[in-house]
Amino acid sequence: MLGKKLVTAQKRGETRALCLGLGMVACSMMMYFFIGITIVPFYTNSVWTTETVCKVLKANIKDKAFCPNSEGSEDEEIFPYPCLQVWVNLTASGQKVMLYQTEDTVERNPKCSYVPDKLENSKEVKARIETIASNFKKYQTFPCYYDPGGRQTNVILSRLYPSKGLLFAFLWPTLMFTGGCLIIVLVKISQYVSVLSAWQ
């Protein structure tokens, strides 16, 4: 009687462990799919792939621009902010080009090098932009990214999803997938050993 209870408890434990392993594998596959349709397209579509050195030529704060909202929005000019324009000398080609914060900045407002968050306070935005401008004037040389194909003549300060960031995004689902597969393999080995022991 005690032996049957132990066998039943063992089968229940194996079933739960097997479900856990399968659940981890399923979750990791969903994470792979999510990363594949969100982060990977941004990484592959970015043309600013080559790192070089940029030297600041001038950093000016011009008239106020308006924070761009989504297309078709009626309150397009609801959030004015100072327009920072940073011009740099591209070491790779020696050209005078405009610097943007990220790829997203070019799409949101190609006239300004920095686009703040619409939810930020206007005074904080003004202070932040002035600080960014003073930092560019203080640190004249820094790494930046440009388009080696020449489709984009401007440069960006940092990529939204660099190679290290993409690898880090794939790290957690990979660990989860490996752990789930390991649990499934261990359960199968345990079942095989149990059947072998009962046969002997």
From TrEMBL:
Location relative to the cell: Membrane
Q: Where are the transmembrane segments?
A: 20-43, 166-187
Q: Which UniProt keywords apply?
A: Glycoprotein, Ion channel, Ion transport, Membrane, Transmembrane, Transmembrane helix, Transport
A GO MF term: potassium channel regulator activity
Q: Does the keyword Glycoprotein apply?
A: yes
Classify the protein's membrane topology as the record does: Multi-pass membrane protein
* InterPro entries, sorted: K_chnl_Ca-activ_BK_bsu (IPR003930)
What Gene Ontology terms describe where this protein resides (cellular component)?
A: voltage-gated potassium channel complex
| Family matches, as Pfam families | CaKB (PF03185)
**Any GO BP:** detection of calcium ion
Name the family: Belongs to the KCNMB (TC 8.A.14.1) family. KCNMB1 subfamily.
User: What is the name listed in the Swiss-Prot or TrEMBL entry for this protein?
Assistant: KCMB2 protein
Query: Per the UniProt entry, what species is this protein from, by scientific name?
Result: Hippolais icterina
Gene name, Swiss-Prot/TrEMBL: Kcnmb2_1
